[in-house]
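Working notes for the structural subgroup meeting. M.R. asked for a predicted model of this chain before we commit to crystallization trials. I am recording the input and output together here so anyone reviewing the notebook later can reproduce the run.

Input as submitted:
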Amino acid sequence: MRQQSLNYFKNYHRARLEELKIFLETEAWEVCPVRSTFSVHQLREFRFINSAMSAKTISQEGNRSCFTQFSVDGNPFTPSDEIEEEVEEIIDHGGIEDTVSDDEHEEDNVKDDLKHAFVDEDEGKRPPLMQARVFRQRMRSSSSTRGPLLANTTLTVLRFFGHYMRMMNVLKPIAFDVLECLSQLFDYYLFGVYDFFVKDLEYLPDNTQLSSKLLTSLKRISESFIIASEEMTPMASHSTTDDQFKVTKPWVNSAVSLTDGNTLFGLSCRMVAVESLVHLAQQFENLLPYMECMIPESKMSFLRQFVSQTVQTAPELRKPAYHGIAIKALPCDQILQRMVTVKWDIRDIKSQHSSYVDSLVQEFVRYQGRLVAVEK
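Returned structure, recorded in token form:
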């Protein structure tokens, strides 16, 4: 019976990985407007975990035979009708959390340019340094009320986590096998974000911006989980052994532009992708106590090593992603060429600054304007 359950679940897992691949390849990497108070416990897939229920209670419930729980109707691989009927309240409808007043309805008719925290008529008259300070204040004000940067695919992965953890809770004999597959969902999302948005921006030699832990994890995923080009088959995934199978590498959506300098090389898409991965890692760690009580003590080392080596290293992708954008956004080579042509004659000090200074200032002004456009 254990083997039959395991075979069924592995087929289920293959289908979820293929579904995740489709989501990654069609994702536009735009912000999914969730509330600032968003938590996985608000998703219906996690309703089986009562927020007031301790991990010990969950473990005790899991000891009840799954045959007893599902002998009459339903199965552990699909959510129950009762769960499906519950309403999720995770979407932020224009920043309105609870009730909507008449005044707030009238605000919808106001132009987008007037919806900032304030309208400053003297903005263009300020010195550049003061403009930058005001810009930072606006960024802080808007981000304090904004929910986490999530993509639609991120929510899909979180829902998959809920399905898998529910199976772990009721199918104790294969709970660890389910956990291994759950970790592969995170691996695949991590690899996709890295391959789409970070790999092309690694400028420092020998990938020194990434720790040895993260590099080891990426190498492990690439070699043991991703089908190499010479192994490509028409199938989206195929078994390599009785216990392991590989999946094809996802490809970024062709509608996502990562080469346009006017959009800072897709900075908004890169931000949504990287920050959604960081949030996914945070949610994984929040669910850790529940996962620990569902697997045998002898298998605990796998979970702790996975969290340490892979999950906790996800935020490291921020540095190469954003550092690479900063390098590409300014035409450093052109400015250096202008500096080379300057005659550094100390015997004749000019009152006017060199021309390359004007070029550099213009590039920073253009860079600031693009950042403002991304923020909007």
